[in-house]
Design goal:
Number of strands: 16
Shape: globular
Number of helices: 20
Radius of gyration: 24 Å
Largest sheet: 16 strands, parallel
Oligomer: single chain
Structural class: alpha/beta
Strand content: 5-15%
Length: 511
Amino acid sequence: MCVLLNTYGPYLMMSSSHTFAELRSLMNTPALDEARRQHLFDLLLQGNETHRELYRSTWLPYIQSFPHHFEQPLTSVHSVKELEHTANLIPCARFELHIPDKAQEFSTLERSPALHTLSSLVLKTPSDTLIQSLLDSTKLNHITALTLCRTNNLNTRHFQRLMQSPLLKNLTKLNLDLASISKHIQTLAQSHHISSITHLSLASNAIEDHEVYHLAQSPYLKNLTYLSLATNQIREEGARALAQSPYLKNLTSLHLQNNKLGVEGIQHIANSPHLSSLQHLTIENNEVGITGTLHIANSPHLSSLQHLNIRSNSIGREGTLALMQSPHLKNLKGLFLGSNYISPYGIKALAQSSQLKNLTHLDLSYMFMEHEGLKALVQSPYLSPITTLQLNGNKLGDRDIELLLNTLDLSELTHLELRSNNISDAGARLLAHAPQLKNLTHLDLSYNHIELDGITSLIQSPNLIHVPSIACEGNMIPSETIHALNQTSHHHRLLNPPTTHNQSSRHGTFL
């Protein structure tokens, strides 16, 4: 990498292109998250359009010296034609294809010269015919990620073929969300072909405790680092099976939101020495309560946790303070407390916790903090610069936006959610004119009281140049006006419906 960087460095340093300056900054970032990968893709498109000869002769060799940035799909495409075009543009990249439910499109894919650039294949709501074509194919054995979701067509015969298929040879990520496969869980657990899988998502499949037991007893899942069993029917015994499994020691991400674990189930998870490698734990909406939260806070086995999502669990002020005062949760960087009412007094107590200084992600949505709670939060001596702040549904108005901008250090903020508040044009203008938001990549202002003047200020803001789309659904702007703004070429930020950072219900992707 250094040799190529030195080769092109003098010429590139002389370039006055702001686009390439951004590109160089991105490429020298140690790791790219989803937002930055998309930004990289957009920059490459822009570079090819405006400097085509330079792009081919210099930019492509330059980005090829950073192969680690192209190990994951750079972007998603939605047709074979788009895949071929994009692969020709960025031949060093790998891509994810959301293939339409058309047999002809699948045949075209198998014959495509860009097939080798495909690393992830997504089939949402696939027909029986498309599933059959997938299972019959001999040309997709190189893919590393497969999604088959939102379907009732994975019958017993199909599932048995899938579990014996060469498709699984190089597969590391398998997503079977909303695929009606609860009756096939034992077949999956007994297949030695899944031994290379590190990411497994089985959300929304009506999986019950006895089926979780089959998964937990599978020696073929010993390489799992990511497991999602969200939105199923798992109770205490299922949690016990996971906690006692000797094969899940490598798990770093466990997502169990929207089940019925209860206090006892959470106690099993918290007391498990087998789950001591967990860095991400999602237990949102599981009837955890204060007692269950105390089990989490008092567990020495969870000392590696970096992100804890405990939204919607009635943990109260006592549970919140227990988490913030826990001697075992010193590594927490992300804390998602939304929809746990702890009162403005609880917010004040939270603001006085020295553990806030470690957080980069904080969710306090739907906690009715209002002005007094926000004032206590932003005046905390421990709230260090954070990257993600979620304050949805807190009855915040324009004066609260002013307070937020004038008091809190937002220089590193990339993700800000303020949906379902009482923000008007005045608050929108304050955000638009805030230079401290220059690193923002996501802004959600849905369901406020913003009119055309406020939205115009936002989309013309020089401070929000990294925000590709502003979520403004449910404001006081007619849909035809939004459409007209989207068609105006000099507006660079499209006004799309929000894509929430709450990942509880996402299907067809891995976190």
